[in-house]
Specification:
Blueprint: E1 11-22, E2 35-45, E3 50-55, H1 57-60, H2 65-72, H3 85-90, H4 100-121, H5 125-129, E4 136-142, H6 150-162, E5 167-171, H7 177-191, E6 195-199, H8 211-221, E7 229-230, H9 238-247, E8 252-254, H10 261-269, E9 275-278, H11 286-295, E10 300-302, H12 308-320, E11 324-330, H13 335-340, E12 347-348, E13 351-353, H14 366-371
Parallel strand pairs: 4-5, 4-11, 5-6, 6-7, 7-8, 8-9, 9-10, 10-11
Antiparallel strand pairs: 1-2, 2-3, 4-13, 12-13
Helix pairs in contact: 2-4, 6-7
Length: 382
């Protein structure tokens, strides 16, 4: 998807950096230092305005965001903002530009450039593409930590309802399966008519289900009327995903583990999933994701597990994409998210009303960088 630009400014600098934020109660599964580290990109133009993006890779390898961005700066600094062709060229760096962590950082760079353009034009990013009046997006509350007890899952759902959501996702796969089924059963009872999704997080957990185990466990989940089972297999098992889709009575969701266009093309064309999850901070680049979503008719959902930059960038993606049906809201609070956003997230009747602030409505100043200095060795560890 292209946007019309008439900006007579060049990019003068780009910086990749990681920050560490207090996260939940500090005792969250996978966070060894009690904080969550996030990877950001800052792009500046000649007028001194800064645009900000986020790369999902920063959660897992925060130390690499800066050097990779520094390498890619050679392709970016000095380019005029009257065209985004220079961003497209990044995807064609031989052997390394197509997927993986390089693509994840490229996605963050594109978001930073779009945020910059929105601020220069004094428009929200979505209006750079169209001016439709509808700005509401269906959202679901993504919680139910894999380490939670059934009682804690119930408490999480009560909190969800108080915040205006009516769709809930919980994690399974770490505890004994009987305990996981008790947790899902409790969620189903408390939610009543509200929607329930289950995430097996096999892209994250080290002890992954085989296809035989996945089939058996999904059978166990059928009676709970869940909307989807997410990542029931490891991300390398693409051919098994196809087999699973053919026999499962529960819709299969996946996609967050992939960053390159070729993976997503294969998922759509070979029916490896019923719901494809896309992430503007990680996969393909924002404009390519919009095109992909609109050209492939399969249902899609956003994947969000970062700051409010990630949340609003993916909300904008959902707004522009006719096949993205629902948007993820991470339940565990990042303290930094409240500090960098211009307008707090507002949910009513399960819907987000996206703001009109220029760019993505975020700002990371020096005070915030100092407040949330990166904590070494704070990347995710299972």
């Amino acid at each position: 998807m292209n946007i019309k630009l008439n900006i007579d400014e060049k990019i003068t600098s780009i910086e990749g950096f990681s920050l560490s934020s207090p996260y939940g109660d500090g005792n969250v599964y996978g966070q060894p230092k009690g904080v969550k580290s996030l990877g950001f990109i800052e792009v500046k133009s000649e007028s001194g305005i800064s645009g900000f993006g986020e790369t999902y890779s920063g959660i897992y390898s925060p130390e690499l965001v800066s050097p990779i961005t520094n390498y890619l700066s050679n392709f970016i600094i000095g380019n005029k903002l009257d065209s985004l062709d220079f961003l497209d060229k990044l995807n064609h760096i031989p052997f390394i530009g197509h997927s993986g962590i390089i693509q994840s950082v490229i996605s963050g760079i594109e978001l930073a450039v779009l945020d910059l353009i929105g601020k220069i034009e004094e428009k929200p990013v979505y209006s750079l593409f169209h001016n439709e009046e509808n700005k509401e997006i269906n959202c679901y509350y993504s919680g139910g930590s894999v380490a939670f007890s059934a009682d804690q899952v119930e408490e999480d759902i009560i909190k969800m309802k108080s915040l205006g959501f009516n769709s809930f996702k919980m994690r399974v796969g770490l505890q004994d399966w009987d305990k996981d089924l008790q947790r899902v059963s409790r969620a189903n009872q408390v939610l009543k008519s509200d929607k329930l999704m289950v995430d097996a997080i096999m892209g994250t957990l080290s002890n992954k289900w085989s296809i035989k185990q996945a089939i058996t466990k999904i059978k166990d989940l059928e009676k709970y009327n869940i909307d989807w089972i997410e990542e029931p297999l490891g991300p390398s098992d693409l051919s098994d995903y196809k087999k699973l889709c053919e026999v499962s009575n529960v819709p299969i969701a996946m996609g967050e583990a992939y960053s390159g266009y070729l993976h997503f093309k294969e998922i759509a064309s070979n029916n490896y999933a019923d719901i494809i999850q896309v992430d503007a901070t990680h996969s393909m680049g924002f404009r390519n994701l919009v095109d992909y979503s609109n050209k492939t008719t399969k249902n899609k959902a956003t994947h969000v597990w970062g700051s409010t930059i990630s949340f609003f960038a993916n909300a904008t993606l959902a707004l522009l994409s006719k096949n993205i049906k629902i948007h993820e809201f991470p339940s565990v609070e990042f303290q930094i998210s409240n500090d960098i956003v211009k307008e707090q997230v507002k949910i009513k009747d399960g819907k987000l009303l996206i703001s009109d602030y220029p760019g993505f409505g975020v700002e990371i100043n020096d005070q915030i960088k100092n407040k949330y200095k990166y904590v070494e060795n704070s990347g995710y560890k299972a």
